[in-house]
What we know:
The protein is built from 26 helices and eight strands. It has three domains: 195 residues, no CATH class; 121 residues, Fumarate Reductase Iron-sulfur Protein, Chain B, domain 2; 279 residues, no CATH class. The protein starts with a helix and ends with a helix. Strands 2-1-3-4 form a four-stranded parallel β-sheet. Strands 6-5-7-8 form a four-stranded parallel β-sheet, sandwiched between helices. By secondary structure, it is mainly α. The chain is elongated. 45% of the residues are buried. Helix 21 links the parallel strand 3 and strand 4. Helix 5 packs antiparallel against helix 7, helix 8 crosses helix 9 and helix 22 packs across helix 23.
Amino acid sequence: MERLIFAIVCLGAFAFFFKNVFRLVATICLGRAENRFDNLWSRVGAMLSYGFGQMRVIQKRFGFNHFLLFWGFMTLALVNFEFLLNGVFPAFRLDFIGDVPYGLLMFAADIMSLVVLVCVVIALGRRLFFRPYYIDQTADAFFILALVATLMIAFFGMSACEHKLNGLVAPNYMLVTNAVAALFVSGLDQESLHTGMRFFWWIHALVLLFFLNYLPYSKHLHVLTAIPNCFFRSKELVSTVPRLMYKKGEDFGVSKVVQFRWSDLLDFMACTECGRCQEVCPASNTQKTLNPKHMIHQGKVNLFINSKSVFANRPADMLAPAPKGASMKVPLINGTDQSVSRNAIWDCTTCGACMQVCPVFIEHAPKIVQMRQHLVMEKAEFPEELIALFENSEQRSNPWGIAPSDRAKWAADLNVPLITEGVQAEYLFYVGCAGAFDSRARQVTTALTKILNAAGVSWGILGNDEKCCGDSMRRLGNEYVFDKMAQDNIAQLRKFGIKKIITYCPHCYTTLKNDYKQFGADFEVIHHSELISSLIAAGKIKPSGDTAGRVVIHDSCYLGRYNNIYEQPRAVVQACSGGRAPAEMERCRERSFCCGAGGGRMWMEELDGKRIYLERTQEALRAAPDTIAVACPYCLTMYEDGVKDEKASDRVQVRDIAEIVAASIS
């Protein structure tokens, strides 16, 4: 009778579990189509490394605790499989695999059960006494830890009673079980041992089956979805957003959760709520509304609420994308606990730090940009200061609204070759709007001109024919204007036979290199730090002297994190400092903290919390530099403002690496 009751309970639990799994798969399928089944072997490798190997998890010290928890459960999975089948078929054992393999399995289960229990105690202690600010204190987390601890305790109680029953002793390799038996059950009689064994057996069975079915409804849903998300991850840090197709009846951007791609919906479910994205987010660090962890959680809640209404209207077609006209019970962009706040959407600098540290490769920034597209192109709801930016960029092809005929004024008295039809050069120097119109950035443009001429590089500019690349338009969600800019620019660059492009601005760099590929562009795009570094290495430029003093270097988000350019700017500074490497900030390279100007924030006011550029400038000043070296015009502007605010202009200068080199070759 006991076995029959368990069989019914077990079958019911697994039926409910598979029903929930089907519901999750059906919910993911509501998203728009996307091919993430390419490069299968590479994806398998990523899944093994990051899903099973937990490579990003263990990058933080406490991650080893999670690593041990994960592998403890992986080890116990086989033992629990045997346990459940044995409950229905008492004769079933895994010992058919051989005495030695089976012995090793039981030894591993015995040891790993203790390891898991210790890890649970450590996790409880951390949450109670040493909880980082980015970890939320939730009842759900404590409940899950309590369930896991109960499973381990029940396993030891069951094993100890079983092996002491009728005078049996656990095999020597079950060290923990023998210790538990000696300490707690050695004095019990046969009847008590049998009662204890059955009690712990049922506790273990019921908690295990409950745990299995509780996961899809808890914050630990990632136990089921994290590994698939590692498999379907983008091969590289996502540097752009999908191109919009302008067809009749199509929506612009994302206003409903089901308008995201299916991989985005899987992202929402895969979040571990570890808070690592919150820890590195410049907006969250400076008390803005945006918290990337909460945004993903709100997306998950919104998805589950709205998926129910979608399924209710089409129960026979649950594995198809949501219909275009599907009505949503709760808006995606609203600002409640079940939706994303407008302020949070505009707080983002798109620096990519959240994506860089996420252990399951969630793509936060593209989701924010797609929601911006809806607000800009369908609702015309955006910060007031962007009105002038949008008008200037569309009408005069630069954010300042300066006459396009003034774009080449900076070169009037310089030896600057002009590329025209029939006049070729190896490289086009794509000056960019900042380099052409901003008075401070023009000094960098002039310095780079000096370097190119000194090195004998074959180069030229387009002069007044150059147009804005459209970076800010795309990051701010004005995709229609960006689309037109991109197509016009590509046509013009091809008209002049351009093959290689040098940029000074990392935003121009990543737009021309990454975004324009969606429009068929195949130019070789080189950042000025790459070119200058190669010229120095080839001996075409020979810096002499040390004109910058103690240099601390800043990694631009769009140069480093988005395009993996870290060494070249450092090599340039080192060559100009007598071989002395630049000093590093506390947060540098992949962990670099944003200056606050990316994602179109260059053109917006910071009205909430502390200013991001000030947070970063203060960090730079703690390194006691004479010079803060940058390789981006936006970073240059932000640091100069920060140095002025900190009243440090008399002792610290902000210089682009091109200015440092130009000064050393004069």
